[in-house]
Amino acid sequence: MKRVHVYISGRVQGVFFRAVTQQTAKGFNLTGWVRNIANGRVEAVFEGNNENIDKILDWCHIGPPSARVEKVMTVEEPFTGEFMDFHIK
């Protein structure tokens, strides 16, 4: 099991990035959260099996159709298992 903390930059706010991230993460059986941050980026924490974490990270480089992702910064953290589901903050 794996945990990653992700910061996504580009045209990622106001384009349904959080909602589609939530749907996609749930589809990959991941837990965690996603939120907009004041500097215009989207921040997310994902927990789950390695394969599905890799899939969501690939997706984060693309995002929903109206997004334009410029940069994805990923920090691997210790897995905690603290989340029951995936939600939007």
Tell me, what's the shape?
A: globular
Distance N to C terminus: 23 Å
Number of strands: 5
Provide the CATH top-level class: Alpha Beta
Q: Specify the structural class.
A: alpha+beta
Instruction: Please estimate the helix content.
Output: 10-25%
SSE string, helix = H, strand = E?
Answer: EHEEHEE
Q: In this structure, how is the largest beta sheet organized? A: 5 strands, mixed
Radius of gyration over all CA atoms, rounded: 12 Å
Q: According to CATH, what is the topology? A: Alpha-Beta Plaits
| Tally of helical runs | 2
Average pLDDT, all residues: 97
Low-confidence segments: none
Tell me the β content: 35-45%
Proper CATH architecture: 2-Layer Sandwich
Query: In the residues, how many domains can be counted?
Result: 1
Strand numbers in spatial order across the main sheet = 4-1-3-2-5
In short:
The protein has helices spanning 17-27, 50-60, and strands at 2-11, 31-36, 42-48, 68-77, 86-88. With 89 residues, the protein is α+β, with helices and mostly antiparallel strands.
Give descriptors for this structure.
Alpha-Beta Plaits; single chain; alpha+beta; globular; 25% helix; 2 helices; 89 residues
Description:
Strands 4-1-3-2-5 form a five-stranded mixed sheet. The two termini are 23 Å apart. It has 89 residues and is an alpha+beta fold. It has a single domain (2-77), classed as Alpha-Beta Plaits (2-Layer Sandwich), CATH 3.30.70. Helix content is 25%, strand content 40%. It contains two helices and five strands.
Task: Give a topology summary.
Blueprint: E1 2-11, H1 17-27, E2 31-36, E3 42-48, H2 50-60, E4 68-77, E5 86-88
Parallel strand pairs: 2-5
Antiparallel strand pairs: 1-3, 1-4, 2-3
